[in-house]
Give the backbone structure.
Amino acid sequence: MTAIPIWSPEEYSYSMSAGFVPFLVPYLHDSPGPWPVMLVIPGGGYCFVSPTEGEPVAKRFYDEGYNAFVLTYTVNPLGNAPLGLQPLQDIARAVRLIRSRAGEFCIDPGRLAVCGFSAGGHLAASLCVHHGDVEDKDPRYREISARPDAAVLSYPVITSGALAHRGSFDALLGPDACQQELDYMSLENHVTAHTPPCFLWQTMEDGAVPVENSYLFAGACQAKGAPYAHHVFTRGQHGLSLADESWLAGEFGEPYTMAQSAALRDQVQAGQVPGVAPEAMDGYFAPPGEADPAYRAKLERDCAQVRVWPQLAAAWLAEALEL
């Protein structure tokens, strides 16, 4: 694994970073291209960065003809240090860094898409609607656009209103966030005609992020004239990622997306985080239990329907990015 830090140590600070600095992991073709880009943003409720939506997704889009990157961004594992705009600054810097090194990465900087899942979908969509607000102090990146050319939003967190995934907003803004902060991060209210083309998908049965989140964003795109596609599958739980055989088998590749959580866990276990019990983060790294046969059979049925989404997204992106 080759990690590319997106910040220098002196320009990055977050109280619960435990020495972690956000980074990109690239999946690049050997031939010169130029290739379109897919920047993958895993979910995790802004509390962790899920391995299930990182490397496997990047490899899938690599196979579809993209040079791909996975972003491991700042999260709030203990729920005690609201993130504010730091994740948005992370993704904006990642986009600018990739474009600034287009020749090195053999990519087309004008064909860059983001693919976010759950809270990562919220982060990707935040960049879609707020890219113009994120300035970069580094002169190497200051004049480079952070606007994606397209986005894939997979079971995304969108609204901070009545249908919110409240845990994501608590981690991002804190439980006592003011209404102005919540409104800014309720993304359906900020879509314009200049919002990049967006492909959304979700399942009706999603018990974590209500399916209405996708409907709200798609409806805003329709109202404002922003190009979009919207696919809703009948069955399926939250967090299905690629919904393929590897996902069913629990094969998610390298767990590098958990770098910040692992670093913080080590500090907690060493007693270096006052007021936090040594076992506070054990659940982040517990292996999944064995699924009962009935639940496993349902997962297999659900995945059989949902796993077509990457093909649908690839076909849509080919038009949106003029590939």
About this structure: The chain has a mean pLDDT of 96. The beta strands are 4-5, 23-27, 35-41, 67-72, 107-117, 150-154, 198-203, 228-233.
